[in-house]
Amino acid sequence: MKTMLLAFCASAMLATGGFGAALAADAPAAPSTTAAAPPALSDADRTTAALNAAVTKRNDEVRARNDKAKAEFEAEQAAYKAAQAKYEAQVRATKAAAAKAERQHAQNMAAWEAQVAACKAGDYARCGPEAAGPK
Q: For the chain, what is the largest distance between any 2 Cα atoms, rounded to a whole number of angstroms?
């Protein structure tokens, strides 16, 4: 990135004559026509283009790696949400089964208490263990 910036700055400075007389003396003489670009500028343009291509390639590699990581993350997140939904369904089923068992137990207790009350009231046919079993 710094090299690209330096190449760009060098290109701009050469184009505007900003490096001063020392570099201007080292630079090849440009033709006097205004239509032709100086050779140093075209070299700088080639350098800049090469650096830009390298940066673009690197950015594409990083973008591809990031896209892959994002896809993996989203797949893992979807799997987690599916597992969470399955767990929550199991919890609901367990709670429903527990509530059903509690209702059945309450019915059985009520039936047993009714048998005990009948036995104590004198209905001796309802006093045995076979009479107290669930139906």
A: 132
Q: Is residue 117 part of a domain?
A: yes
Residues with Cβ within 8 Å of residue 48, at least 6 apart in sequence: 4, 7, 8, 11
pLDDT digits (tens, 9 = 90+) for 44-99: 898 999 999 999 999 999 999 999 999 999 999 999 999 999 999 999 999 999 99
- Quote the domain boundaries for residue 54: 2-27+37-132
Burial zone of 111 (CB within 10 Å; 0-12 exposed, 13-18 middle, 19+ buried): middle
In a domain, 50, yes or no: yes
Task: State the Cα–Cα distance between residues 56 and 127, nearest whole angstrom.
Answer: 92
Domain count, the chain: 1
Evaluated on CA atoms 28, 42, 13, 3, the torsion sign reads: negative
| Residues 3/49, Cβ–Cβ less than 8 Å | no
Please tell me the distance from the alpha carbon of residue 67 to that of residue 110, in angstroms, as a whole number.
Answer: 64
Domain contains 96: yes
- Residue 32 included in any domain: no
65 Cβ contact partners less than 8 Å away, ≥ 6 residues apart: none
